[in-house]
């Protein structure tokens, strides 16, 4: 894809950690590229990287790879992550699902 990963893990079927090491993993994290807590800014940065890579993403999926976008989210109460319609459309056109790894800030709840 011509994108340098920020994290990559190679197959190791003998690993004691099970499924995580039974598949290859390639990831690109926005943490060092985007200075914002707004998930829209982070997703936009990802889309900028893959915007013209539809054929490559399809090739990966046809080869048995999973392609998706994961966002880290810490909730402090009301509200939550969102997507605007154009971003949803672009993710869909690229065949990319999106999901959030959500954590709740227990200190704020107390």
What oligomeric state do the depicted chains represent? single chain
Beta-strand residue percentage:
15-25%
Order of helices and strands: EEHHEHEH
Helix content: 25-40%
Largest sheet: 2 strands, antiparallel
- Morphology call: globular
Read across the widest sheet, the strand sequence of neighbours is 1-2
Mean of pLDDT: 86
Q: How many E strands?
A: 4
Q: Count every helix, treating DSSP H or I runs of 4 or more residues as helices.
A: 4
Kindly, what is the distance between the CA atoms of the first and last residues, rounded to a whole number of angstroms? 46 Å
Name the structural class. Answer: alpha+beta
Q: Write down the Rg.
A: 16 Å
**Unreliable stretches:** none
Describe what this molecule looks like in 3D.
This protein has 110 residues and is of the alpha+beta class. It has a domain at 37-109. The chain is 31% helix and 20% strand. It contains four helices and four strands. The strands form two sheets. A two-stranded antiparallel ribbon has the order 1-2. Helix 3 links the parallel strand 3 and strand 4. It is globular. It starts with 6 loop residues before the first strand and ends with a helix.
Write a compact overview of the structure shown.
The protein has 110 residues and is of the alpha+beta class.
Give the SSE layout.
Blueprint: E1 7-9, E2 25-27, H1 39-50, H2 54-62, E3 68-75, H3 85-93, E4 97-104, H4 106-109
